[in-house]
Design goal:
By secondary structure, this protein is α+β, with helices and mostly antiparallel strands.
Length: about 140
């Protein structure tokens, strides 16, 4: 009389069967792969925006050098010209004068609310990028 497969034989067949192994491996590796690819895009875009912000602050510093430190509207216009209308809503421009070692400088601080390409909800949807430049006030 032959009985059904024993537990040992059933387990042996299960471990020898490799059907679906590739799908399981992909399910384990895919989130890591996608996270690293999206993270690379996100970091690259944030670095691009930081460089863009630095160029805008440099444009403001050039206006200080050419037109003088008293023309705040021209400084703001030069900075805002580097951004689209939608991006200008996310800008915060602060213009102050500081004296360092007896020399007066115009301090230009621009903050930009950077939104992540992949939105993670209200808890973490972006962060602030900031660039600062000092230009000698003539």
């Amino acid at each position: 009389m032959r009985r059904g497969p024993t537990l040992r034989r059933a387990a042996g067949r299960l471990f020898r069967n490799h059907a679906g192994a590739a799908a399981l491996e992909f399910a384990i590796v895919a989130p890591l792969l996608f996270a690293s690819v999206l993270g690379t895009f996100e970091a690259g875009h944030a670095i691009y925006e930081q460089n863009h912000l630095g160029a805008a602050v440099a444009a403001g510093a050039r206006v200080v050098t050419v037109k003088g430190a008293a023309d705040d509207t021209a400084i703001r216009a030069a900075i805002e010209a580097k951004f689209s209308d939608a991006q200008q809503e996310k800008l915060a421009i602060t213009l102050t004068e500081e004296t360092i070692s007896g020399q007066t400088f115009k301090k230009i601080v621009v903050s930009y609310d950077y939104d992540l390409l992949v939105n993670f909800g209200h808890a973490f949807s972006g962060f602030a990028l900031t660039a600062t430049r000092y230009a000698p006030a003539l």
